[in-house]
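Hey team,

Filing this mostly as a record. A colleague (T.K.) asked me to run one chain through the structure pipeline before their review meeting, and I want the input and output archived in the tracker in case anyone asks later how it was produced. No errors, nothing strange. Just documentation.

Input sequence:
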Amino acid sequence: MSFAESGYNKTENRYEPLYLSYRNDKVEVSTERALGTRFKLENIVDDWKRFGSIYTDVVGWTDYPYNKDKNRAMKNYENNKSIGIKINNDIDADITIRDVTEGSTEALKHSNIISKDNYNLLYAQYAGNFPKMKFSNSKMSHVCCEIMATYNALALVGEFDINYDGTVTNDLDEYFKLALEFEINDIYLGFINSSGSWGSDPKGIEECLKSYNCNYKVFNNVDDMDKDLSKSVSMIVSYKFKVLGIHTYSCYYDASSNKIYSINRGSGNLYLWENNSIQECISDKNFSVGYVLQ
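Output structure:
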């Protein structure tokens, strides 16, 4: 089944057809009838609204009950995407920095990319371009740890795979779509206040994982999670600070070294944490929730 609708092309400054086709539980939308799509409407699971569903609401095709926040969220998405992920490291090669202060000169020069195999994962939220981006009404660098951790974990299980010059890697632009999803769903599902100043609720990440149809397990006990490490492709760990606040990061298990490598374990860390277990990594911190993706 397919039908055509009209959409406005900002680049070409004209209206042109949008072709929609339904197959394999997906509605594909494109300005070219026979070519790739600009976005996809996934088969929605439970309450989490995916990028395609949010986009159709913004252009007026559907009407979800988060109208007051959708335009701000879409504006943030467009602005953040135009800024982009900082890929290149502009710090002098002779200078070794392990930690940065948010928004400092050294931080803004540093890349947000750390590689694993062919995948480009995100880390150091205080560095690179994240202090220039927005999540809700807050600086992205203040509050994006849950989004970054979820993106990395999903990337490692192949959710954002693209073929780049014959090499399978992950699409970094998908991070901005995921951030939009978190901004809308966090408010829609009651996980955060409208300002976004406290970031996302790590226990709400499960709703996101459900919508991506990936295999995962939820853990409320760190010892139980440590027992499942060898079965994991990637993991998400969230812990509470002793006084106030929470931090969430991603990690993966390396069978050859029998070690866990944690990404963005500290918001200003410019390195991977290497540990024997998750319990060892968070030491005396209070474990909140964990996810093992398989």
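Quick notes for T.K.: The two ends are 34 Å apart (CA to CA). The longest strand covers residues 14-23.
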